[in-house]
Amino acid sequence: MKKFTSTFWLQRPIHWSLVFSLISLLIACNSNNIPVGPTSLNSRYTEEQPGLSGNGRFLAFVSNRNGNHQLLLYNLEEQRLIRIPGLNRPETIAESPSLSYTGRYIAYITSDQGRPVVALYDRATQQSQILTPTYRGWVRKPNISPDGRYVVFETASRGQWDIEVLDRGPNIELDIPNGATVSSPP
């Protein structure tokens, strides 16, 4: 009888430490710690595929809030969502965002007649344009250069995944910080 009592006594501290550990874990993971609202970075919905601007001010990501799969832009300094009119269209999906240096240009994947295409959104003009309308294969994972001139992406036009570099040309308005010098490419 004495042996049963001493074994029970030794197991009791282990039992209580487990209970206290679980309670403290539940308190630490309280959902009230997550900022929730229409303008907060995180919500109760899935947020994924983040892309950060070169200056670290803007964050683009894909979210399922409001029942829609949409691309959102968040200002990290002001801690608020930025409107991007014309980018999220009904019946289309926007994915894999990539931002230029100041976040003026957003390269992303969208659908055109059921096929994924690389598109570019210009926040200054609030216009989107499809950059890969004639690609026969699938495209994915676009990335824009900090100045906004070059867009790289993966394509399966040759039956395997290859890398393509798209030069938007020397006459585009570059996304550079104010006062920066621009040198022409060699």
TrEMBL record:
Q: Which SUPFAM superfamilies does UniProt cross-reference here?
A: DPP6 N-terminal domain-like
Q: Which Pfam families match?
A: PD40
User: What InterPro entries is this protein classified in?
Assistant: 6-blade_b-propeller_TolB-like (IPR011042), WD40 (IPR011659)
Going by the entry's taxonomy, the superkingdom of the source organism is recorded as Bacteria
| Family as reported in the entry's similarity comment | Belongs to the TolB family.
User: What name does this protein carry?
Assistant: Uncharacterized protein
Origin species, per record, is: Komarekiella delphini-convector SJRDD-AB1
